[in-house]
Description:
Elements: E1 10-12, E2 15-23, E3 27-35, E4 41-49, H1 57-70, E5 81-87, E6 90-96, E7 100-102, H2 103-112, H3 119-138, E8 159-162, E9 167-169, H4 198-201, H5 209-224, H6 233-242, H7 257-266, H8 278-290, H9 298-308, H10 310-325, H11 356-366, H12 368-379, H13 381-399, H14 402-415, H15 419-432, H16 437-455, H17 460-473, H18 478-490, H19 494-502, H20 513-524, H21 528-540, H22 546-559, H23 563-576, H24 581-595
Antiparallel strand pairs: 1-2, 2-3, 3-4, 4-6, 5-6, 7-8, 8-9
Helix pairs in contact: 3-5, 3-8, 5-7, 7-8, 11-12, 11-13, 12-13, 14-15, 15-16, 16-17, 17-18, 18-19, 19-20, 20-21, 21-22, 22-23, 23-24
Amino acid sequence: MLSMNEFQPLQFGKYLILDKIATGGMAELYLSKIMGDQGFAKLVAIKKILPHLVNEEDLVKSFIDEAKLAAFLQHENIIQVYDFGSMEGTYFIAMEYLFGKDLRSIINKAKTIELPLSLENALLITTKICAGLDYSHKLKDFTQKPLNIIHRDISPPNIFITYDGQVKIIDFGIAKCASLNHTTQHGYLKGKLTYMSPEQAVGKPIDHRSDIFSVGIMLYEMVTHHRMFEGETMEVFARVRESDFEPPESIVKNLPGKLYEIIYRSLEKDPQYRYQTAGEMLADIEECIQSLPIPPTKQTLSDYMSKLFKEESLVEEYTLRKYFQVDTEEKPEPEKSKPLPAKINITPPEHTKLDTLEKTILLAAKNPDNRRKKLLWYVGAPAAVLLIAVVVFLAIFFLRDPVSSKLDKGMAALNSNDYPKAIALFEEVLTARPSMKEMIRKSYVQALRNQAYTQKETNPPEAQTLLLKSLEFEPDDDRTHLELGYLYLKNNELKNAMSSFAEVDAETLEYPDAQFQIGNIQERNGNFAEAEKIYGQVAEMESPFMDEALFRLAVVQDKRGDVDESIRSLEKALNVNPENQIAKMFLKTQLNKIRK
């Protein structure tokens, strides 16, 4: 919150810097005023690269990319950038000053004073986010070439709501643009894990549909008032990767049916089943809004902000008025800017197809007249009559076969998520007719896995049994081996856990936690040299828990007596995640060792 403090105003070219608003990992944000002739003045926000990072090439390129991108972004739901340049040895961006709060602050304050965001306002906010994203996703450059912009960090801290009810997307600092093709720094996954799409979390190529998934997460959280993903990093990563979340209807049961559909579609694990554009999602939400008794407006959102931040807004307004009166005796000539340098949702099973013979028999039984016409055409009436008799006899025999009935019931049970019943029926089918093993393999395996996932917390031994059964049918499934490894690990069966994790393809980017857990087991067994090797390999992967791998690497290096290497690993961990508190504490301990 703004407050008049001891910060002394500083002249920065044509801008007068009034106060520091915030400091991030890459830049500082200042409240400033631009002054012109005839008393012209306007409050703006100045973003400057931190002094000690001005020589970091990748960070500077990222900052320049943000400025270049801002030149194209002109939309009411995206923060407006006014100026960019370099001055006093650093780069800066001048942008509109927004008088309000980011969505994270709003959600936190709402919980504190028990004044939750209404459904109406949640939908309104989401429509504005979708509108801004749809514009940025479809934006073209001056030659009408698509820019293919992806924000990559759509999350509550990057959604700003002003006290008068405007909604703005901010911080395109890590956005990806086709014309700005600087590669991502190795080992650094851009964005916030709990708001990433599955494909972004595992380091796969992403497109604009990744942003749509992030919007779906925020919509889910705003209407349920629950976090979609939370917990330890490893656990969150596993759930994000599979889009595994608690169904919203189990948290809030009285939402419009259309809204549940919107949430599920936006959160599809596979991008091809998601909304293909933010505009499509916007249209569906607006349709949902029209069904509400009182549709939300900018004023209803402004009223909510006033109730939530009544005191804060008054103090900030008073402070801004005071700042606006600050002036200098003489306005210096603006310094010229230097030229820019050259930056687990489970998918429904496919319906099992009957083999050719059974399908033919069933078709004949269901439509004997058409079948007769075809046979008469090819073999003549006498032969046709004989063949039809045989086919009808076989069809009647097959349709009376209880195996077929059990197969149908098993598929129905699977589709209705009654996994125990589906498993039992499929096993009866396999016992009665082993030749149908390949036909029902996928459905049977899906029933086994899904039931195992429902049992892994309450009945781990049963979950293990189910997963082992599924591996008999699909022995190379990485995810099943991973889940089995975690079950063994939870039960302290380290040898079995090691074997399961080792079955996961070490080269896959989708399950780097398997290698991490192998390193963990080696460390627990006292095999520090092997653990160091494996943690080092995991640290080379681009994964959301890279800082944890580096921290564990530092621990085993310390156990091997290599304090200097341990310190280097800790510094890397903190470079990846400056908020890793345990790494900070351990680094302090290690530095004290070498000082003694």
